[in-house]
Structure formats: C-alpha cells, structure tokens
Amino acid sequence: VSIICSSPQNYPLYIRSVPTENELKFHYTVHTSLDVVDEKISAMGKALVDQRELYLGLLYPTEDYKVYGYVTNSKVKFVMVVDSSNTALRDNEIRSMFRKLHNSYTDIMCNPFYNPGDRIHSRAFDNMVNSMMMQVC
Amino acid sequence: ITEVCGAKRVGYFGPAQFYIALKLIAAAQSGFPVRIESIKNELPLPRFMALKNDSEVRYGTPAELHGVKFQVPHATLEKNSYKRTDEGEKQEPKSPPMSPICSPPASPSTYQRIPLSYGYGKSRSGLEQQHGAPYEIRHSTHQQDGPSSGNYGAKPALACSTLNRSLSAEREQPDSSAHYSDDPWRITEEQRDYYINQFRSLQPDLNSFISGSVAKNFFTKSKLPIPELSHIWELSDVDCDGALTLPEFCAAFHLVVARKNGYQLPETLPETLLPEYLQAASLKPMRDCSLFDSYSESLPGGQPSRDFSRTEVRRAEEVPDNSALLQDGKKEDKQALKVSTALKTIPKEFQHLTVKTAAQESNALKPRPRSRSYSSTSIEDAMKKGEEPPTPPPRPQKSHSRASSLDLNKIFQQNTQAVRSGWLPPPPPALPPRPSVSQTEQVSEVELHPQMNRPPSQAEENSSAKKEVVLAQPPSKPARRKLRTETQGLETPELSPTINVTSSLPAVKPHLPVQKQSSKQKRAIQTAIRKNKEANAVLARLNSE
C-alpha cells in the first residue's frame, strides 16, 4: 500500500510505500492518478466548493490495485494505492484513513515552523502513517 | 570513590553522594579513572553484586524507612516548588528526599535508574504500603518522574543559579554545568518563573494563548535549527491548535533550554511537561502537602485513592504523544503524585476547559481520549456537553405547509396560548406585505380570538372559520404564516416595532406585544447564535487548513 500527499501544485509533499519494492511503480501510478483527481475537481467547477465532497472515492481500478483519492479544501491531494487482493478494506475504512490523514495534516499546518509547500518531516505524521499502514497490510 | 564523591567530606552518603559514588563505580568498572570528570561519560550500569549489602545497610531499619516513607510523600508533593536548599538541608539528616549538593552529569536516565532500582527496590520490598509499591515498580520504568524523582529532583541552589545565569544569557550558551539534578524534563520553580515572565512579555494575559507566529519568532531567537524547533512545537502543542497556552509554552521553552544544554529531544513529550501536569504543578505546594498527609494517614483506605490516581494517570497517559513511554507501572508511581494533583487538576481542568472551549470544539474530529478517566470525566463531559450541542433551534412552524388544516389548528392553539399569556401578534406580522388585507384579517381574528379562549372544540370551529378566511384570502394566509415564522428569525426586532406602531387594532394592547417580542427576540437571537456557531465551525476548519 502506498500513500502520497501532494500539494496544490502537484508536487509530492510526502510519499510512503510499504512494501518498498516496486516503489517506483507506485509512484508512477500515483502520478498518473493525479490527473484523474484534477479531472474530478474541475468537473464540479461551477458548483460551490462547499458542495464538493472531499472524499473522491475509487479513482480507477487496475488489474493489481485500487487507487483512492481525497482532496482537501486547500487543494492538497491525498492518494492511496492499495492492493486489490486486500478485499477486506471497505469504503468506510478508506474514508476513515483519509480523515486521519487530513487531521494529521491539519496538525502539521498548525505548527508555525512548517511552511506550506515544504516536504513533511513531522514525526507525528510519520507515526500515524506507519500505524495506518500496519493496519492495512 | 568515597572521597571523590564527597561522602567523606559531609560524613555520610546522601543521595547525591550515593549517585556519584555509583557512577564512579561504573566508571571504575569500565576502566575510567576515578575522578569527578569521569562521571560525565556515558557509562554502562555498574555491576553491583557486591554492593547489595551496602545499600541495605544504608537504608537501615524499618523504623528509619518508615520515617523516610512519610517524608517522601511530603517532599514528593513539592514537585516543582523545590524550596530547595533550605528544606533540603533540614531534611537531609532525616530522609532521602532532599537536595543533592552536586549536580549529576549528563546522562540522567541511566543515572537515576541505578539508585532507584537498588536503593528503593531492595530495601523497600518488604513494605506493603502504597509508597513501597511505586518504588518497586519504578525500576521498570525508564522515565524518571513522580515521587522518587520528586525526592531526588530538588535542584540545588547552585545548579539553579547557574541555570539562571545561562537562561538570562538568552539561552545562547550551552552551559554544561547547569544540569538539572535528576530529571531534565522537570521544570524548577525558578525556571517556571522565568518562563512565566517570558510569556508575559509576549502575551500579557496569562490565561490566553501565544499565537503560532509570535512563538515562532520567539523560539527562532534561540538559534536552534528549524526542524528541531518544529519537533519541539509538535511535542509541546498538545492540543494542536497552533497556539501555546502557558503550560504548553513552559514545556516548549523547557525543551528548548534542554536542547541547548545538550539533551536530545525526546520522541514524545515527557510527563512532567504535559500541560495538565504543569498546571497542577503550578498550585501551591502547601495545599498538596496537607492533602497528601491526609491520604497517607488513611493508608488502608488507600485503595480508592490509588484507583483515583490511576484513572487520572490513565487520562494523562492517553494524551497522544505519550503512549509509548508510559507504562502500567507508572500508575502506581504516580499515585503519590497524582493523588493530590488529581483533586487539583479537576478544578484546573475546569478552568482549562473553559479557556479552551474553541480548541476542544475544533478538535471534535480527533479521538481525544481524555474522557476515559472517570474521575475527571464528569466535569469534562459536563463541560463538553455544555459546549457542543447548540441551543435548541426554535423552529416551531417551519414545517407547516400552506393550506393544511392541522396546521391551522396548531397555529390557533398557539395563538390561544399566546392570548392567554399575552397578545400574540399574528396580526402584526401580516402587516408589511399587505396592510389592508391583514388588517381585515386581524379584525376577523380579533373576533375569533375571544372564541378561542375556550377548549379545542372551539378551535375547530375557529379553524373552519379560519379556513373560510383562508379561502377568501389565500395569499395573505401564507404570508401571515411566513411572517410568523420570520418572527422567529432575524427580522423580528425590526418588524415588530414597526408593526406595533402601524397596528390599528383597538383590542391590541400595545405593551403586551412588546413582552412577547422580547421572548421572540430571544429566540431570534438564539437561532442567530446557532447559525453563527455553525458558520464559525466551518470557517475554523477552513482556517486550520
């Protein structure tokens, strides 16, 4: 499973993959999925921001894995790639994982020493992501 | 070793001498020369096969232990208010909890583990009292805290003065001599005062926050690298709201000072730096002492206090940053400490919660486990319950559809109630859109109202009569009702005065509608408040992002 947090300008702020082999493939997948995310955001361009759901759901399934997306109000995108064989993961669990990610991201933003757009080095964030990935794998 | 550690000079082994002696033993066993400087090295634990007898002898008879036990809690409670050297000197002949003369070197964790495990674990294993138990378990913890560190943690005036000097030099000198005697994560009284003064210089109100940017500028002056400052912030901003309260600020400042003095930053916030702990610690020690004495006397009844403190500890333990470091054993460790602080933290928590209501609401998403402790739950929950549910929205009639007769019934019943209580202004709301129509309506209603004072059987008659009026003037009915609903809204204060003025009904007693208006205004204000609260929550969330 792999989790990526990317900025509004679509460069990555945080990347973490478990297991670490095939990491490049995950990166590539996430990069392409950013297109899908952007498409979904712009699709509701005319509607008010409030009405847009933060959780974007399954972006697209490939043969091996599923990609889920989530975008915050400040256009920071979270993309999660999970194994398709892991059928135990339900939509609600993915939602809760994204919610936790969002909360941790908010905590990072509260830190005045963090400049938006920096790579994320926070240990609390790392711990949270690690524990989440342990749950999934 | 005896000579070097100073025991020969003072004539006995106080805790300071004992520690230094142990450290020197370790040094000697590791091959270092037996000198004071060698205790500054990172040393493995000394091997103590032979020393067992010594420590038992040193902690002497049960009588002495007993006396020590009572002294221990007494000193324990003076956690951060170490009236150091004065009381330290006095207590020294009596018991361990006193101020060491020399300050220990820069490996506090290992250093303290030694005396704890050997000094207390062996000699007190026989004691059944609640004070014996913590010390036994203590050696399993690797974070020094609580009663024994309270015993040994009294900072000598020497170290404090050096510390003050280093602090007053704006934290720019890593003064290696200013080592806290045993617990680097415990804030002394002088330090606390210094931090409070610094807080005041940034933010005059001690109960308020320091914003993130102000704190950032302040801590950047300490010339620590930004990632470390970022980590310090993460550790000390427990509620993650982007601002520092006084205890959070003290914790952050303390971490900065520790870092500048060469200590590595911990992965999670030490317990002594938790905001709850710091707030409790800021209370007067005298009260704590008297409280604890009463507890220590009721030893058989110590169980409830033990549970009390355990839950209190659990609450503190579950603050997210501390999950890794707090062990089960700490519950018992804490009880000597927390028994007194628990009672105090409740009222403090109360204040704490009142100050930080906004923070709590914004953290509603996080699973903050604070409420799990039953001892403090009631107050916290009460506070939370008081804050989070909004005032019940006064929406009496929004669900009414336009031409439903049942609704008419309800309206009329409300009208009857209003008539009984005072003059409900159904006529006045009808005025603005169609003054002429509503006036006739009002006249008809005036006629109807006297009838409505009777039981519901009349209501039906009225409703049928009303229906006719409805049929006769359909557009005005919805307008009237809508306006009545709007009276619950914001326009009431504006409409009602004008309506009252323009009302030409002879039956209308002008002053009675005013009374009704005030209650309606209240309801209007309440809905407005509720709407504003909701808007605030959304904005706060956007803001935090």
TrEMBL record, chain A:
Subcellular location: Cytoplasm, Perinuclear region; Endoplasmic reticulum; Golgi apparatus
Transmembrane regions listed in the UniProt entry: none
SUPFAM superfamilies named in the record: SNARE-like
Pfam family, one: Sedlin_N
InterPro entries xref list: Longin-like_dom_sf, Sedlin, TRAPPC2L
DNA-binding as UniProt keyword: no
Keywords: Cytoplasm, Endoplasmic reticulum, ER-Golgi transport, Golgi apparatus, Transport
Signal peptide: none
Similarity-based family: Belongs to the TRAPP small subunits family. Sedlin subfamily.
Protein name: Trafficking protein particle complex subunit 2-like protein
TrEMBL record, chain B:
Keyword Calcium: yes
Organism expressing this protein natively: Charadrius vociferus (Killdeer)
BP GO annotations: endocytosis; endosomal transport
InterPro entries: EF-hand-dom_pair, EF_Hand_1_Ca_BS, EF_hand_dom, EH_dom
Keywords of this entry: Calcium, Metal-binding
PROSITE patterns: EF_HAND_1 (PS00018), EF_HAND_2 (PS50222), EH (PS50031)
Keyword Hydrolase: no
Domain of life: Eukaryota
Membrane-spanning segments: none
Signal peptide annotation: none
Basic and acidic residues: compositionally biased ranges: 76-93, 307-318
Biased composition (Pro residues): 94-107, 424-435
Ranges of biased composition (kind: Polar residues): 486-505
Chain ranges of the EH domain: 191-276
Coiled coil: none
Span of domain EF-hand: 224-259
Location of region: Disordered: 76-108, 294-333, 357-404, 419-522
Protein name: RalBP1-associated Eps domain-containing protein 2
GO cellular component, one term: plasma membrane
